[in-house]
Amino acid sequence: MFHSIRSGFIARCAALLLGTFAGGIFAVTGAVAISAAEPVTESSAGVVATDARAVGDDSRTRFVMDLSAEAAFTVFPLDEPDRIVIDLPDVGFALPKEAEHEVRGLVSAFRYGQISAGKSRVVLDLKQPVSVDKSFVLPPADGQPAKLVVDLVPTSRASFASAVRLYREREKEAIAAARPATPAPSDGRLRIVLDPGHGGIDSGAIAKSGTLEKNVVLAFAKELEQKLDESGRYEVLMTRSDDSFISLGGRVAFARSHHADLFVSIHADSFWGGDVRGATIYTLSEKASDRMAAQIAESENKSDILAGVAVPEDTTEVSDILIDLARRETKNFSVVFARNMIKELGPKVRFFKHPHQQAGFMVLKAPDVPSALVELGYLSNPEDEKLLASPAWRETTAEAMARAIDTYFRLRVAQTTTGSLEPATSAP
């Protein structure tokens, strides 16, 4: 679970901006010490964080996290917005929580949780550029727990930017050294990548009852995976099959490296007002259909920032006419998929008043993989939440979605023989 700790006003603003509820965000004092025990998250390593605090002022701030045992860690900076990220091995979190308090020092907020299998993360939001003066772990002694300590001092914007640039260069080197993508298999099978949104440190939307988007969409994706597997026509892959965080870029890279023929990202957001409900199918466009589509895309695109992931520099400039043509064809296929999905789901699922929307979702930007983002419903609506939690509704909806995928691929096959691709229905 992804926990965010910040001053009351900032917490409310962030909850509204991200389309989540304030109940999922915990406030903190200037000492950032939290009370009222939070359930312990699982940790195979057996190390548990039991408390955390940031003390000091704008000239020097010390972040301290109490641990049940010593643990290795790494620290690095990120900008836009300014953050310090602390990566740890698999750590369980049993931090207490407390109501709203003023935050002092150079740290305005912090979040913590799992970032991937066997790896945990703490993200410190900053009021201004800082440098890490010292960072170390004190072993347990005299009845006191082990302590992870990170000392922060102010620095110039130029120095902070230089430190971020060095980190990004090292990351690029690591990516370049990574195992190259395997060639496309020649077995003739169609490959579908299902992408349950959020996960790990990023809970996604949170209903008033406490229902987490990351859990709802994972349960649905597994149901859909089963329906598609039963047909025997596809190889179905999941970007995540457990409570792991996957970056937006990592989701796109997964689809491309596995030579996906279709990428379906599954979500269940929240939005202003409990009257907003119903399923929505999104396809990629740099110009959003309307303000609501733009705000939801902006919220989803912040997942990496909240999880302390370096957002790559913009690389949208097209330097190859063939790449440009591939992107156009991919967008056309994506729109056809969305329209067929709406036609097939129509008798089974309640749709939002404008069921097909377009916006600039980062997760849909693979230039060579037809992609769509399916909002199953809105956790901010009590009726939608009941449906999303219903196994019967999941099964019925997954069956309808599997049929829509079948129809889409029949059209794709027809296009290879006729040279034209006609949508199953007109645009809504």
From TrEMBL:
It holds the Pfam family Amidase_3. Residues 252-406 form the MurNAc-LAA domain. It catalyses: Hydrolyzes the link between N-acetylmuramoyl residues and L-amino acid residues in certain cell-wall glycopeptides. The keyword Hydrolase applies. InterPro entries: AMIN_dom (IPR021731), MurNAc-LAA_cat (IPR002508), N-acetylmuramoyl_amidase_3 (IPR050695). PANTHER family: N-ACETYLMURAMOYL-L-ALANINE AMIDASE, N-ACETYLMURAMOYL-L-ALANINE AMIDASE AMIC. This is N-acetylmuramoyl-L-alanine amidase. It comes from Kaistia geumhonensis.
